[in-house]
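We now fix the convention by which a protein and its fold are recorded. The integers have meaning only within a learned vocabulary of local backbone shapes. A record is reproduced here so that you can trace the correspondence yourselves:
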Amino acid sequence: MATTADFRNGLCIEHNGELWTIVEFQHVKPGKGPAFVRTKLKNVKTGRVIPNTFTSGVKINIQRLERRQYQYLYRDGEDYYFMNTETYEQIFVEESMISAPDLLKEGDIVTISFHAETESPISVEMPAYVTLEVTYTEPGERGNTATNTFKDATLETGAVVKVPLFINIGDKIKVDTRSHEYSERVKE
């Protein structure tokens, strides 16, 4: 068991029966009353961030998370199958655990966080950017590079993102997995 003196950013703790990581914390020593620690906690499974106050010196239960590299293999209904890049063991996770499942392409490398005690997967983190090919979009016109207008484009994974007018079918583009926004065209 640890105390609030062991708090640091990124520490994973068990609070109210769920796993939380500490986003930020601040020790406060008021003129009157006992000291306390003001924190922002992020739920490991849902990603929700909440403020919470701990009395200074209270006991906390530290949990260990392990992050491992996995390669995406295929999808079967709501389950996504991944292979460990070191041991070649295969696991599956539910679609709800993946941050951007519509941008996931076979062969992509992701990071899966595991709860060390139970060896159960908690979340799947995709790389910040993925490169995908445009399979359908309305034809672009020459000279439309100066305006800031966008059109829909369907990618090889089936996802639809907004792209500039000069993007055509067959172009490879970089997409931000956190916001589903077009980043840039990739030159081959």
